[in-house]
Amino acid sequence: MANILVVDDEQGIRELLEIMLQREGYQVTAEADGAKALQRCRKEIFDLIITDLKMPGMDGISFIREVKKISPTSMVILITAYASAETALAAMKEGAYDYIEKEFNVEDLKRIIRNALALKDEKKQDELFIKEMSQAVSFGGMIGKNPEMIKIYATIRKIADTPTNILVLGESGTGKELVARAVHENSSRKGFPFVVINCGGIPENLLESELFGYCKGAFTGASADKPGLFEVAKGGTIFLDEVAELPPVLQVKLLRVVQEKTFRRIGGSDDINVDVRIISATNKNLSRMVNSGEFREDLYYRLNVISLSLPPLRERKEDIPLLTRHFIEKYSRELGKEIKTISSYAMSLLMEYPFPGNVRELKNIIERSVALETSNIILPDNLILYKGNGPQTVSSGSDEYEAAGNLNEKVALFEKNLILKALQKTAGSKTKAAELLGITYDSLHYRCEKLGIS
User: Fold this and answer.
1) Secondary structure (3-state) at 369
2) Rounded (5°) CA angle 410-413-414
3) Do domains 3-126 and 395-454 have the same CATH topology?
4) pTM, rounded to two decimals
5) Residue 315: partners with Cβ closer than 8 Å, 6 or more residues away
């Protein structure tokens, strides 16, 4: 039962609203002026407040401003006999949900109230979901607790079961396909196919037949009918990765599918109806491509009904340790290793790395490190990071290292370099350096003495 506060200096209006709202099943409180209403709001939480614009002492706009400081989650509807665009704008700026003229239609007011309360409930659910997800680290196969990622999780939950087309934007390796899969798996289409097609990975002369299929005899080698991927995805979701790579002729044919839900196989004359949800993705600036004439404007707006922009990994540093642990567990299990963790110093190097290849690059780094590692912890020398023109191990393959003689000498030099780097990072603090290297202070002190490090 929603708790509603009515604020109006006219007794007749207050009584009318009280009777109407109580008949609708709401709990109603009424006050004659803004000052008394604010006192009431300090003692009680209201889901919805309906306030008059012109009142003695404090007008409705001022009241909204003050009540939003006390109860920011309360929805507010303004009633005014002086409706104007300026009034509406002023009310919305202060946080009102809507306004209605004083000679209102009762059914119109009921509708506005229902919509306001529905929106409040939706916001509350979103807040609960975001709070829950901020304590979690995964959603729909994605790992991370970065605030921008949590917002994406919340959006996916809201839009998953709509038929709306979605455009996923982000750099290569940010996880655009994971987003598409999460949308599919959280929708009522999850029992139907999820079909992926890389628009940039298939030669142009083959792409049309892959998308739409062909009829027997359509061209040399077409010995039988073949359904295209849009038919295969019927009832489910089709994910068009790298959609910006579609050639102009296929952009026209895709537009027809998006608009009319029909297409024809190559060599066919019959329209084929198909019910699919289209999720597209690109790492390019499609709006710029539209302006330059490289991508059809009408297709762009059909695909980009809702857009989701994924942040690059360098902008979600707090997720690097979570992703690293996840990949260590995954590849240790798959490769039959007993690796449990990563050294503190190795992790600090990952935290400083810009990851031009994003999550995909981190995944590859950890898979390679797990494969190379012979101990039960990933050490810096098995992290191969790309610097400059090519990959380098963290130990950096210096001339001094290459010139070292036998294995013991190489190991000693490598160990010395690691300790010196750790001391440099911690401004000479051996306690902090030991933590970075994942060893005890006594062990570091012994190694420093042995290696001649002061």
Assistant:
1) helix
2) 85
3) no
4) 0.63
5) 146, 148
With contact defined as beta carbons under 8 Å apart, do 201 and 243 qualify? Answer: no
Q: What is the DSSP-derived secondary structure letter of residue 266?
A: B
How far is residue 6's CA from residue 71's CA, in Å, rounded to a whole number?
15
Q: How far, in Å, are 321, 353, 418, 431, 433 from residue 427 at the CA level?
A: 23, 20, 14, 11, 9
Q: How far apart are CA 340 and CA 346, in angstroms?
A: 14
Q: In the structure encoding, which two tokens stand for residue 65, read together?
A: 């401003």
Helix axes 85-93, 60-70, angle to 10 degrees: 20
Residue ranges covered by each domain of the chain = 3-126, 139-309, 312-394, 395-454
- Helix/strand/coil percentages in the chain, nearest 5: 50, 15, 35
The predicted-structure confidence for 41-98, as pLDDT tens digits, reads as follows: 998 889 999 998 888 888 888 888 898 888 888 899 888 876 566 777 777 788 888 8
Measured between alpha carbons, how far is 75 from 120 in angstroms, rounded to an integer? 7
Distance CA 18, CA 200 (A): 63
Neighbours of 19 (CB within 10 A): 11
- 3-126 to CATH, choices 3.40.50.150, 3.40.190.10, 3.40.50.2300, 3.30.565.40: 3.40.50.2300
Contacts of 57 (CB under 8 A, 6+ apart): 33, 34, 35
Q: 65 burial class (0-12, 13-18, 19+ CB within 10 angstroms)? A: middle
What does the alpha-carbon distance between residue 228 and residue 274 come to, in Å, rounded to a whole number?
Answer: 11
d(CA 232, CA 404): 60
Q: What is the pLDDT of residues 178-226, one digit of tens each?
A: 999 999 999 999 999 999 999 888 887 788 888 988 888 888 778 888 8
Element (H, E) at 420: helix 407-425
395-454 placed in CATH 3.30.450.40? no
Q: What is the Cα–Cα distance from 219 to 40, expressed in whole angstroms?
A: 78
Is 125 in contact with 293 (CB distance < 8 Å)? no
* Residues 256, 295 contacting (CB under 8 angstroms): no
